[in-house]
Amino acid sequence: MRSFNRLVTRQAGVVGDRYLGRRPFGEYRVLFEIGLEGATPRDLRARLGLDSGYLSRMLGALRRDGLVGAHPHPSDARTKRLALTRAGRAELRRLDRISDEHAAAVLAPLDGAQRERLLRAQDEVRHLLALSMFTIELEDPTSPDARWCLGHYAAELAERFEEGFDATVWPAEPTRFVIARIGGQPAGCGALKTLSSDTGEVARMWVDRPHRGLGVARRILGALEEQAAELGFTTVRLDTNRSLDEAKAMYRGAGYVEIERYNENPYANHWFEKRLT
Questions:
Q1: SS3 state of residue 135
Q2: At what angle do helices 52-64 and 25-34 cross, to 10 degrees?
């Protein structure tokens, strides 16, 4: 493991004080996470696992260089919304171009079959390392980490649903609530509600964008199914919106079958059920 880590950090160019010959690697990671969509300091701490002091120093350097600006948050007066300036967006584009050139240079000495082997191996290592870093635990749905997850979940649904999304339509607090964390920071969540004495309902499934494609959502779903079995449920149901194609694919892959409408959720277009064994 240590030998692998040393090789990767050398190949990626993160050992020196200037990543790809330009800025410290940490500052570029912050620029990348702010991206074109913007982020709050809390988002950056959660996604990068940074303490407040270190993050504050990096943001100070980026703001002094005119790459990042801070603006009032539209829905939370307690925090700021960070966004890239025009110079920051240009710097991010330059970094993307240099990074692409660096990746191409790594692949260039390999033949076609070797490139395919390397890319498949990288994908497998990425998935396994990510799964080893995540924990999933029961959580109070009113905790700060839970509120952070649910706030981002609601904001994403409002962005993706054709009809928008109003979080006030959510029903009472769930029977069980779980949070996925990486390095102690929240990265995803899910809830289990009681429909009847033998039937539970999975809801509020969400994984933060930087951690998608790693199998985390499937692990959250499995954790909720385990909770359902502990509560004596023999059946689990869920619903989803037509715009969430990746969610529908995951549920089908996890053994859920589509059924007729079973609730009055105004945002649901597909309903699924699974018998627990």
A1: strand
A2: 80
Residues 6+ apart with CB under 8 A from 74: 81
Q: Are strands 199-207 and 235-240 parallel, antiparallel or unpaired?
A: parallel
Place of tokens 């959660």: 46
Q: Which phi and psi angles does 88 have, rounded to 5°? A: -65, -40
Strands (E) located in 56-210: 68-72, 80-84, 134-138, 176-182, 185-196, 199-207
pLDDT tens readout for residues 10-20:
887 777 777 77
Model confidence band, residue 168 (pLDDT cutoffs 50, 70, 90): low
Residue 189 pairs in a beta bridge with 179, 206
DSSP letter at 241? -
Alpha-helical segments (H) within 108-215: 112-133, 144-160
| Predicted pLDDT at 74 | 72
**59, 11, 50, 9: which is closest to 31 by C-alpha?**
59
Cβ partners under 8 Å of residue 199, min gap 6: 233, 234, 235, 236, 237
Q: Nearest Cα to 149, choosing from 190, 184, 194, 201? A: 190
Identify the DSSP state of 40: -
Cα separation, 273 vs 102, in Å, equals: 46
- Say how far residue 256 (Cα) sits from the centre of its chain: 23
C-alpha distances (whole Å) from 227 to each of 27, 103, 174, 232 are 40, 43, 12, 9
Give the pTM.
Answer: 0.78
CA distance 108 to 147: 46
